[in-house]
Amino acid sequence: MLQLKICSITIITNYYFMTREKYILLYEKCQAGNCTPVETKLLEDYTDRFELTEGEWTAIMGNKEQIRAIIYNRLQKNLPVGPIKKPIISWYWVAAASIVLVLSASVLLIKTKPKENIAQIKPQNTKGPILPGSNKAILTLANGSKINLDDSGKGTLAQQGQCTVKKLSNGQLVYSVDGKAVNAPLSYNVATTPRGGQYKLVLSDGTQVWLNAASSIKYPVVFAGKERHVELTGEAYFEVAKNKQMPFSVSVKGTSIEVLGTHFNVMAYDDDNNMVTTLLEGSVKLKKAGTEAMLRPGQQAVMGNGHTTYDISDVNTDAAVAWKNGYFVFDDENIQSIMRKISRWYDVDVTYKGTLKDQNFGGTVSKFSNVTELLRILEMTGTIHFKIEGRMITVMP
Description:
Mean pLDDT: 77
Low-confidence stretches: 1-19, 46-55, 81-120
Strand content: 35-45%
Shape: globular
Structural class: alpha+beta
Radius of gyration: 23 Å
Number of domains: 3
Distance between the termini: 26 Å
Oligomer: single chain
CATH architecture of the largest domain: Sandwich
CATH topology of the largest domain: Jelly Rolls
Largest sheet: 19 strands, mixed
CATH class of the largest domain: Mainly Beta
Number of strands: 27
């Protein structure tokens, strides 16, 4: 069930369906290891009743049951495994390859504008729909050479001293050290995601990093010395490998985040007004310009641009990492904040026309929806409207 709130206006819907294109996107997402437990379960359930229903089956296409078994086995092979965690959403995807399954449909509109206003978001002068982002990034090696990770095949991408850089079949980038590392000058790699991209990498110490769109991380090929240090721009989620003898730290926007082994998210885009650090597990110390703050699990620290103090509060950590799990979670956000997220993920430009009301939105929606569908949901509040021309989205009252 999707719930959008704006002032006294509430929209509740537990209607959702998936087209063939979205099914493919979901399948590729699971191959990359980024499916949520809900999406994994629904994909598994669907494969149990998988049918090739489009068009008439002919002998030249092969044995239908054998083809069905091959598809089923490939799906099972690429589905991620592990314990099922509590989902952060209360509505469910319905996976369908050549048919559309509607589990339920119910929409309550307390206040809306006429349908002709909603029609404004029909794309104009564009060759096709604006699709969501995907796993893509550029890896810059220590020697300055660049590797396009979304184009490269699986296997070894580079050998840098004692470290081998590999791309796994699920799309992850993994650094592994051959033997015991020796003391040597540190050499650095940089992973950079464009707008419309995201990527997961595993550093040489085992630390896992999920890099959000329009972000970059600079890190040593092999960690050595008394500390592990990386530099971040944009947004990333970290699951830091424990090593008490070698603390881990992240430099971002003039702040140093110090940890031993912990799970946390950092959002620090240049075009956002705040730097936001959210702790899920363990502990972190934040330091900037002589100011220090400690976070415990479930807390979030916010520092505004140009400020030197942290605003710390208890938060829903699921919302902070929803982007990693394939969702937008808008938690009492204004339209400018929402459109910055949409711009990064869909690689679109945004402009504003007219005077917009000072009002906030809340809700949860899949990041793998067509942008038109996402905007239509926002329009259903009856308080804001959109027009798409090429890759430009105009926001209007």
